[in-house]
Amino acid sequence: MKILVPVKRVIDYNVKPRVKADGSGVDLANVKMSMNPFDEIAVEEAIRIKTAGKAEEIIVVSVGPQKAQETLRTALAMGADRAILVQTDEEVEPLAVAKILTKIMEEETPGLVLLGKQAIDDDSNQTGQMLAAMTGRPQGTFANEVNVDGDSVTVKREIDGGLQTVKLTLPAIITTDLRLNEPRYPALPNIMKAKSKPMANKTPADYGVDIAPRLTTLKVVEPPVRQAGEKVADVDALIEKLKAVGAV
């Protein structure tokens, strides 16, 4: 079985994003970039499934600029076998990504697609669900636990009310949540080996996908500064304060 793992290059989660002066977007100049944390979890889970003898090959794919090669090399250093870079300097929306992944799935025929439930830059949480709808494959979103058994996979998923367990027939699509695992740090020998692992370079046009945006960003602004709290002497004073601001 092949496992396909899409990964995205995003601003490192330790970096505070800066808005451009003209409000047209987020300033990416001289900003540290890294793999989306949810995608790291997906790569780690794919490696664990392969180590358990339930998969033969892990393919990582990224849709983004040339520098996304660095993100793919990180995934290869973690333990993926080969990579596909679909290169574009344009901002690609989740629907276009799902269309590209659909074409790649037709070529690679993976038994399992593991991807992060969302990217921390846009927080869309859409690609996995769109991909499942387009391919007609069963999906297990927000995975807290994944167990592959023969021609099926059991997914324990996080929902508002607790945990829900679903059993999917392979091939299937799974999106990973934070508590699924703890991603490994690539060892230096594996980082060196990753440089010689195969990486195919493609473009959206190679897959016949139109990535023209369907949404227009009107303005990006910093969130408002939270107002300082105020202590009150008792419940009566609290109620009066709430009435004064129109909360009750």
From TrEMBL:
- Keyword ATP-binding listed: no
Cofactor(s) essential for the protein: AMP
Q: Which GO terms describe its molecular function?
A: electron transfer activity
Q: Mind telling me which SMART domains this protein's record contains?
A: ETF (SM00893)
Please name one Pfam family that this protein belongs to: ETF
Give start and end of each Electron transfer flavoprotein alpha/beta-subunit N-terminal domain.
23-211
Keyword terms of this UniProt record: Electron transport, Transport
Q: Membrane-spanning regions, if any?
A: none
Record has Transport as a keyword = yes
InterPro entries membership: ET-Flavoprotein_bsu_CS (IPR000049), ETF_a/b_N (IPR014730), ETF_b (IPR012255), ETF_beta_N (IPR033948), Rossmann-like_a/b/a_fold (IPR014729)
**GO aspect biological process, one term:** carboxylic acid catabolic process
Please give the function described in this protein's UniProt entry.
The electron transfer flavoprotein serves as a specific electron acceptor for other dehydrogenases. It transfers the electrons to the main respiratory chain via ETF-ubiquinone oxidoreductase (ETF dehydrogenase).
Q: Which family does it belong to?
A: Belongs to the ETF beta-subunit/FixA family.
Q: Assembly and interactions?
A: Heterodimer of an alpha and a beta subunit.
For this protein, the record's PANTHER family field holds: ELECTRON TRANSFER FLAVOPROTEIN BETA-SUBUNIT (PTHR21294), ELECTRON TRANSFER FLAVOPROTEIN SUBUNIT BETA (PTHR21294:SF8)
Name the record gives this protein: Electron transfer flavoprotein subunit beta
Instruction: Specify the species.
Output: Sphingorhabdus lutea
